[in-house]
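To close the chapter, one final illustration. This time we ask the reader to focus less on the individual chains and more on the assembly as a whole: which components sit near each other, and how the overall shape emerges from the parts.
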Amino acid sequence: MKLCMIGHRGGHDKFVWDGLARMPHVRVVGISAGTPEDDVAALQTHCEALGFTPEVFVDYRQMLDQLQPDVVSVCGPFELHAEMAAEALRRGIHVICEKPVALTLEQLAMLRTVYTAARTKFQGWYAGGLHFAAFMNLRYDPAFYTAWRAVRDGAIGKVRLINTQKSYKLGHREAYYQDRATYGGTIPWVGVHAFDWIYWFSGETFTSVYATHSAQDNQGNGSMEMSALCHVTLSHEVFASASIDFLRPATAPTHGDDRVRVMGTAGAIEVRGGQVYLINATTEGEVELPVACERQLFQDFVEHIEGQTTALLSADDVFAVTEACLLARQSADEGRVITFGG
Amino acid sequence: MKLCMIGHRGGHDKFVWDGLARMPHVRVVGISAGTPEDDVAALQTHCEALGFTPEVFVDYRQMLDQLQPDVVSVCGPFELHAEMAAEALRRGIHVICEKPVALTLEQLAMLRTVYTAARTKFQGWYAGGLHFAAFMNLRYDPAFYTAWRAVRDGAIGKVRLINTQKSYKLGHREAYYQDRATYGGTIPWVGVHAFDWIYWFSGETFTSVYATHSAQDNQGNGSMEMSALCHVTLSHEVFASASIDFLRPATAPTHGDDRVRVMGTAGAIEVRGGQVYLINATTEGEVELPVACERQLFQDFVEHIEGQTTALLSADDVFAVTEACLLARQSADEGRVITFGG
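The assembled structure is written out below.
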């Protein structure tokens, strides 16, 4: 299986490297920075370490045409995710793309249309159909995966209420974080994970969203929002909050403080500090679940393509969650509740 | 100092008994159930234990006229809080009232008007003026008080984002919880504490609120909401969430799971499980603060009246917070963002 890689912004290409170490039949045949401002040095270093000697391209389109890879990973500039993914999909190439896969609703609509058309056009090529996924790495995090499995297995009954939290250290941010056009905003960039948890844990569909965000006290980072709060309503009157911030102090023990709390009709489960806490009728007080995830993001993606498994993440999931966070950003910009499909 | 007590619904009269044990100069002179459906047995038992022999009245108004107490505590049926408090205030009697002090915006407007007029009318009677407060007991909880003090002392810089949580066991609920007219709804009844934290910790004013609530899966409890989510915007783009539910499993170690997380420009503080966790530039990682509160709710109320202190809770605080939770309930009922003063 031939893999091409475009860019490494965001750093999630590390999940590709981790996956490649487990799958010797997948080879990196081409790399491209995807943009003149970035370089491929980091990609080259990783390739050397794994024994690959990929061709290097300035123009990623030329790479796709010339090498005709089976799979491409897209980690280019954020504002080019949708375009880069679409270029590959139009050529019948499976895509795994950095999140968010689109920075605007227009980009998302284009990508969805391209994917739908490409799935039909190339349906004869692949048993499982043309695949599209995103680096939603937290689905494969041992704690979140364990909690999700427990919820799916009925540990808390029907899901009624979800609280999610993404809290990051600000640190030093490159210039492209300072501009909505190249960053996309904190709700899509950070919050997409929270929206994914909400969608994934609830098993419901999005109904409406209300959100606010603020760039106050952002230490000179342009329009970058430091705090955001989203209020999501899903089918069956399930409610969910997403609290998002870059206010985690530099002295905190970890970069991020990721949390999910899910309240059901027959129990409560919480992920906090990498641990999973469960209370239900079978527990005495609160119990800590052993955490584990046997699946790896890129391996799951490849094995889905090969028809060996159904990946944790589908293209439809990616589109639904991306739409949700872009509508949340719109809600925050416009100060109003936004209804899905409205 | 003469105290009369009306009713004991909600159980917060326990803060009066605790306070009385510290203040031998305050005597219970009269008690009334406040309504024919309730009785005074519980009040009588407490009075006997403390050596009081109060007169018992069927009509609380008659009690106020006849005994002319300095102070009255109001714990009658929820829907009568505002009326009972107003009757006392009109007579120049200080009032400490169960929360929420009003179940409707009309009741709240009436109570505010009565209090304002009474403060003017009776300003010569009391050094500190006629006082009105509510049983917002969590301001006196060691953990929440310690966290609030730390925030006020600048431990986290400017407050930017607050997440609050009230999660209760459902247990068995009396019939008056099943009807909006006698219960008021879960957002005011439970959520008032969360709105109080938001107001108290932020030091900001309420700007707008959006909320949702659901009575689904409420185990036959009429219109009682089992889950609610509130999204509050305050001055200076400070955002706050209030997650409220009766979904805490019966096997949980405590009745309630009360939490506050406050993110500031220079630190983060959290109250969880009765402990306070702080991270800022002076801490190595996260530190646990020793928790303590030297103030007692009813004692603070009495000492405020006596001019010995400024109570943690003012009448204006009570009105602002009650209005906020009633507008949040309205938002949830009507499905729209509500602007304060709009």
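Chain B has a mean pLDDT of 97. The two ends of chain B are 42 Å apart (CA to CA). With these observations in hand, you are ready for the problems at the end of the chapter.
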